[in-house]
Each structure stands twice: as structure tokens, then as C-alpha cells.
Write a structure and sequence with these properties.
The chain is built from 14 helices and 13 strands. By secondary structure, it is α/β, with parallel strands linked by helices.
């Protein structure tokens, strides 16, 4: 591809992106597709000769686009969103064109310093105190792994990396069953082992960890000669929005000398609105916090904001400096590869810079407040219907419900069939979960492009499909 071709196809791709976004309303949110349908249409072997871009692009439009789930659709109410505000997409064009490897300050001076600044903007925006430093990770999973490794090293007097876990008693980490499965993976990868992830019972309407049970578990482990290392607390859990009492968790951990990591991957974005911050009261006492601007704030995936109260502990855990990575003759620089598990790093700060400047915090607050209002209004409308029940009350813009008609005895099967019928219909997209062993249907409002009428469409589709009139 020469420069002229590059220019022409870049314009074509940008124009296609605009038309795609404009047409999302007309597309089903999720394709009705059998597994293997795309695979069967792809050649068995790679091409030996170059193919024309016209043919490649035509196949993209014919094979790929109709077979995609459309995450930017305004009626995507499943999982949590992976938003990509248009201004973030434009920034990603530029990042892709530059193709910088941002592992060190000297390999990416502007990228490194911009990351320092925009993470401090985000810190201020969500109300964390000035002792927190930030780094952009690819996802909350990586941030949580980094936190687990740090709490492990801290508990082992910084000897885990050097001597291995076999040289010590078992390290114990505490969390409720409401935390994301990324916590399980972090425990596996850190070598701690699933058996040493201690599940603490929950209590109350927010399904938060029982701090008395937490304290008792820590005491029992110490008495057994085990090594309590840290607590992973949850704000806005994936299943139902479960939220721990962060202040109470930090109080227990503080008395016991344990590290606290707060996973607010989805809900953390809402903390740019001061009225929602009581949900994580006490977060300033945590050792680390993660939230994903690529979920609710509009930054294109991937972009996870990881804040650390003492960055030296993180760097001490993760930094390796072979000679070829040392930066000589520069004092006071930051090499963010020492703050992350991967060495390689993309220029993720640019899309945050564009996003925050183009929308401003007030514009982003308005979006989040609207989502919360529209979701809670939908829950209220469903509550008023005799054949629906709210299983978990709204936490920000997330709630769960069940359809329970009098004639149905197997409500779990009925609600699984219902969510499948809704998704096959294509106008909206929902997911199911289990609350106390029972199937429930999740609804969360979070699409950057969502309007109030999309929530009204959700109500119409849910009721229509539940009552079999579709």
C-alpha cells in the first residue's frame, strides 16, 4: 500500500465508521447466528498472492459486520458497556497511525507525561486524595493482578519474587463471592491458589462483605500459621451491583496490617458525580483502586485507570531493569512499564485527553446521571406490573428482575427462555445472572449513545416478549 492508497483507504475507513454509527439503530443489537457460520465462509488456507483492498473491504462488509454484536448500539443493555465515544475513536486513529511503543519515557516522552497528567485529572474527577498516583492498565484484570502481586510481596517481606511461595506459609486473600472472576484468575496467576482465596459471607441490600466474618477469618488464619495478605473489595459488582462497605473493610484491614484493593471497574466512572461517592465512602483509606474509563466513561477499549496510594510498592513488585531498558542521565522520570505486568504499552492516554477535553466533566456527568435516572425509572415501571418482580434494586444504573406469571412453575427455565427470546428478537440485548441461586435478568444502562426513548423501548420489548404478544 503506497501513500496515496493509504490516504484513500484511511478516508474510506473513517467514512465507513461514521455511516456505521449512524445506522446502528437499524441493526439488531446481536446477530441471530449459529456458531461456525462465519468460520465456514472463510478460506481454509492463507492467500499466497496479494488481494485487492476492494475485495478485502467488501468481504469485511459482507462477512464480518452482519455477524458482530454491536457494542456501541444505544440499546446494548447487557454485561457492562465497552463505550467508544466518537472523539475517542478519532484519537485511536492517531494512535494507530503513530504506532508508538510506550514502555519507557525515552521511547515515548509525550505519551508518558500525558499519562501522568490525565491520570491526575481523573484522580481529581473521582475525588481521590493527592497521595494517589495513577497508571493506565489494559483492563481491570491486569490492575487487580498487579495489586494481588503487590499484596503478596508486601506480606512476604518482599521475598516472594526472590524465593518463591514454597519458602513460606500459605498466603491468604479475602473477598466476597460477589467479586469478578478476574480476582480468581489473579489469585491463580500469582501462585496463591484458589484454596487460599477466602470467601467472606455478604449481608444487607448491597450484598456487601460481612466485616465481622472478615475479622474472624483473618484471626483464624493467623492462629493456623497462615499469612493474611490483603482484601479485595467490590464496588458495583458485575452480577447485581454488590458493594462492600469500603470504610469498614479498610478499618479491619488497617488493624490487621492488610493491603486493600478496591475493584470499581464499572461503578468507578460514576464517582465523577459527587452525589454517588457515598457508595464507596472510605476509599481514600485503600491501597489501590481500579476503574475502567472504557466501560462507562466513553474511552475506547482498552483503558483501565489504576490508582495506587504508594507507587513505590507497586514498582518494587514489578520492576525489572535489564541494561537495555535502563534510562541513563535522566532523573525523576517515570517508566510506566515498571507499573504494569506487560512490558509493551500502547498510547492509551491520548484518547482520555481527547475525551475529557471534548466533553468536559460536566458533559460526562450528565450522561451518567441520565443513565441512572432512566434505569431507575424502568425498574419502577416494572415494579408496578403484577407479573414482574425486582430481584435486586438499582445500584446506579444496574438492576435485576424476574417475570413470574401465575401459571409458570419453573421460573428459572421461564426466565432463561425469556432472555433468549428477547435477545433473538434483536431490538435490545440483556443478560441473565443468578441471585441466591435463582435466575434473574440483568438490565444496565450505559451506552454512550443511549437516549431516554431507548429505555422506553426496553420496557416495551420486555413486557411484549414476557407476555407472548410478539
Amino acid at each position: 500500500m503506497n501513500h496515496d492508497d493509504f490516504a484513500a483507504w484511511s478516508r474510506r475507513a473513517a467514512d465507513w465508521g461514521v455511516a456505521y454509527r449512524e445506522s446502528l439503530d437499524e441493526r439488531p443489537v446481536r446477530p441471530k447466528l449459529d456458531p461456525g457460520a462465519v468460520l465456514r465462509q472463510l478460506p481454509e488456507a492463507p492467500p499466497e498472492s496479494a488481494e485487492a483492498m476492494d475485495a478485502i473491504f467488501a468481504d469485511f462488509e459482507r462477512l464480518i459486520v452482519p455477524s458482530m454484536t454491536h457494542w456501541q448500539h444505544p440499546r446494548f443493555f447487557a454485561y457492562f458497556p465497552a463505550n467508544a465515544a466518537p472523539v475517542s475513536v478519532v484519537a485511536e486513529y492517531l494512535v494507530t497511525a503513530m504506532a508508538a511503543q510506550c514502555m519507557l519515557w525515552q521511547t515515548s516522552p509525550a505519551a508518558t507525561e500525558l499519562e501522568t497528567k490525565v491520570l491526575d485529572w481523573l484522580r481529581q474527577a473521582i475525588g481521590l486524595p493527592g497521595n494517589f498516583s495513577g497508571v493506565i492498565q489494559d483492563s481491570a484484570s491486569s490492575a487487580t493482578l498487579a495489586a494481588v502481586l503487590t499484596m503478596r510481596e508486601r506480606a512476604l517481606a518482599w521475598q516472594g519474587n526472590a524465593k518463591g511461595l514454597a519458602a513460606h506459609s500459605a498466603v491468604r486473600v479475602y473477598a466476597s463471592r460477589e467479586v469478578h472472576t478476574s480476582i480468581d484468575r489473579a489469585i491463580w496467576i500469582a501462585g496463591i491458589g484458589e484454596a487460599n482465596l477466602v470467601r467472606i459471607p455478604t449481608q444487607g441490600p448491597l450484598r456487601g462483605v460481612d466485616t465481622a466474618a472478615l475479622e474472624a477469618a483473618i484471626a483464624a488464619d493467623r492462629a493456623a500459621g497462615l499469612i493474611p495478605a490483603g482484601v479485595i473489595a467490590c464496588v458495583g459488582g458485575t452480577s447485581s451491583g454488590a458493594t462492600d462497605d469500603i470504610d469498614a473493610v479498610c478499618a479491619v484491614a488497617g488493624r490487621e496490617g492488610l493491603y486493600v484493593h478496591v475493584d470499581a471497574a464499572w461503578a468507578g466512572s460514576a464517582m465523577i458525580c459527587p452525589e454517588f461517592r457515598p457508595l464507596w465512602a472510605g476509599v481514600e483509606r485503600a491501597h489501590s483502586v481500579v476503574f475502567n474509563p472504557h466501560k462507562w466513561l466513553g474511552a475506547q477499549f482498552d483503558c483501565s485507570a489504576h490508582f495506587i496510594a504508594n507507587a513505590d510498592d507497586l514498582v518494587r513488585t514489578l520492576a525489572i531493569q535489564p541494561e537495555y531498558l535502563k534510562t541513563h542521565g535522566k532523573d525523576g522520570i517515570v517508566n510506566y512499564s515498571e507499573w504494569s505486568v506487560p512490558l509493551g504499552r500502547r498510547f492509551r492516554a491520548l484518547k482520555l485527553w481527547f475525551l475529557l477535553r471534548a466533553h468536559g466533566l460536566e458533559g460526562l456527568r450528565t450522561m451518567i446521571r441520565n443513565h441512572v435516572e432512566w434505569s431507575q425509572a424502568l425498574a419502577k415501571r416494572l415494579t408496578a406490573l403484577p407479573d414482574f418482580e425486582i430481584v435486586t434494586a438499582p445500584v446506579l444504573s444496574l438492576f435485576s428482575f424476574r417475570h413470574r406469571p401465575d401459571a409458570v412453575t419453573d421460573l428459572d427455565r421461564h426466565n432463561l427462555d425469556l432472555v433468549n427470546a428477547i435477545n433473538d428478537d434483536g431490538r435490545i440485548y440483556l443478560t441473565q445472572t443468578r441471585i441466591d441461586g435463582r435466575v434473574a435478568i440483568r438490565f444496565q444502562a450505559g451506552s454512550f449513545a443511549m437516549r431516554e426513548e431507548d429505555a422506553e423501548t426496553a420496557y416495551d420489548v420486555i413486557v411484549e416478549m414476557a407476555r407472548g404478544s410478539g
